[in-house]
Amino acid sequence: MLLSSAYFPPLSWLALVARDMTLSPDRVLPSHVLLEACENYQKQSYRNRCYILAADGVQMLQVPVVHGDSWGITDVQVDYSTPWVVRTQRALDTAYETAAYYEYYRDDVFALLDARPSTLWELNLSTIRFLLNNIGIACELEPTRDFAAPDSVADDFRYAIHPKRPDDVLATLGLERPYYQVFRDRMGGFTPRLSALDLLFNEGPDSILWLSHS
Question: pTM for this structure?
């Protein structure tokens, strides 16, 4: 499977990774994911943004980047000239302070941001690994060594999961169903297409059961 890197990736991203993992009482066989390391940075994508559910609706959390000479995804620098880390932490506190498992994961999430990795690639890897480890998805991540042309690789989802395009991954996997969300009553029901942080903060250890259901 071939995926692009993502900042606290959405549920559909994690669901694809969990799809290829074998989970049984006596063994765990990890999925294998090729992470695209040879592409150019894609603006307005999940590579530098994620979405959470706040009291007034869906909120985007964005990582600013430095506009430099190189746009290779592993070279793009994170811009720390504005206090976006503090704003992100405050937004998470406001949105999830009453979520069942937020306090359990909060310090680790904040530590990832406070570490201030220099590149977007490093930051994304840290958020991906955090979600995989805490949700319980066994996965071997391998960065690509060459860029593969679109449609040249089986299970190429690099451009299929995008905030501005239709996303039917969860429906295809039989996972298009609700879980508990803090503001579901205020929103008039379940809100899809959020970062997997939303699932983790609300469902905690049961997140893997939701993602592995078929």
Answer: 0.94
